[in-house]
Amino acid sequence: MQHHTKIFSDVPNSAVDWRAKVDFREHATGCPWHDCKTFLRDVGLRPTRQRLLLGWVLFSKGNRHVTADMLYDEALAARIPVSLATIYNTLHQFTQAGLLREISATGGRAYFDTNPSEHHHFLVEDEDVVMDIPEGGHELLVDKVPDAPEGYEIERVDVVVRLRRSGEQIR
Amino acid sequence: MQHHTKIFSDVPNSAVDWRAKVDFREHATGCPWHDCKTFLRDVGLRPTRQRLLLGWVLFSKGNRHVTADMLYDEALAARIPVSLATIYNTLHQFTQAGLLREISATGGRAYFDTNPSEHHHFLVEDEDVVMDIPEGGHELLVDKVPDAPEGYEIERVDVVVRLRRSGEQIR
DNA sequence: ATCCTTGCAAAACGTTTGCACCTCA
DNA sequence: TGAGGTGCAAACGTTTTGCAAGGAT
Q: pLDDT for A13-54, tens place per residue?
């Protein structure tokens, strides 16, 4: 809870934006609160105060990469009464509902991406920085996916391009 | 320390095998102990009892993916007197020396691959299974790497193909 | 009224650290 | 002998859990 990941690329992707999702809904009224409620219900989650508010905090700022304690701090800053346990619950429930995507990264903390569509990441491990690989990075990067072994099927392909500051030694 | 990752693909890759490395050395004598000692010295690590024995345990069984506690259990089973702290030290020192490679995976534990060359992994998260993507998987998979952002350069590209058992629902 | 959700504190987990002791060269 | 490796236990940060109280339908 001391130092936070800097996000230096917030590639917008309105297709998976909370507000966009809400707007595309059949019975959208235009009222953010009402729509969010309906939307939460649709993904099978009761629209409780915390989920509504955390959803708002998460999805109202474009695509981002958050950790549990980042979201916790934001929630506190926004005067949302919420416990850390609920933060974790909510992040996992949203992930399960397909609203978030967990990022493959080494290291203690789990990152959640508010853009759950198939795309990949740059990672600067030493600096705790995660950023999207921009535009077309997915198609560009993964050309041919290998067959899954017997009895398994591919769920998704994650690509992490690790970066270091230019000129640094390989240590 | 309770349940362990099953490895179901130990793709052999003698180029990065400890024994092979030792054999390729200039002054290899054929005596595993002597050669390992020399080899450790070459990568800048004092050939202590623990490093020698852990190196042997790690690299004498083909390529594998181990966690700290797996290695700890193996060491205990092999009657190697070692502490968990030393296991962590050794794993990191070996990784830094290029003998091991850490695998990008979500979840608490860190996996170390005894094959440090550029290659990628299948991952079955629910079952704690890691396996190599076989033969040519690297060239096949990553076709075109994006440019690194200003001020950074690419250190490496990790691809993780997540699997689930066939026929399972997306949950 | 019922089930689900939340908050809190405590525990679990993997990992790291501090320091005294020991070992290798 | 001196630099550095090791062991132990305690600290750490993140995440999970158990249970009582609160909220949604």
A: 333 455 555 544 445 555 666 767 887 888 888 999 999 999
pTM confidence score? 0.80
Q: CA B111 to CA A27: how far, in whole Å?
A: 47
How many angstroms separate the CA atoms of B124 and B165, rounded? 8
How far apart (Å, rounded) are the C-alpha atoms in residues B90 and A128?
24
List C-alpha distances in Å: A24 to A55, A162, B135, B165.
Answer: 17, 36, 45, 33
**CB-based contact A104 B160, cutoff 8 Å:** yes
List the single residue in B137, B156, B166 with the smallest CB-CB distance to A146.
B137
Phi, psi of A112 (to 5 degrees): -115, 135
Helix, coil or strand: residue B146 = coil
Q: How far is B146 from chain A (nearest CA, A)?
A: 7
Asked whether the beta carbons of A52 and A37 are under 8 A apart, the reply is: yes
Residue labelled with tokens 């190697």: B80
Footprint of strand D on the protein (CB under 7 A): A 1-2, 37, 41, 46-49, 67-69, 84-85, 88-89, 92, 108-110; B 45-46, 48-51, 81-86, 89-90, 108
Range 134-153, chain B: CB under 7 Å to any strand C atom: none
From edge to edge, which strands make up the β-sheet containing B129-132?
Answer: A129-132, A121-124, A152-165, B152-165, B121-124, B129-132
Nearest to A54 by CA among A44, A40, A41, A42: A40
What end-to-end distance do the CA atoms of chain A give, in Å? 28
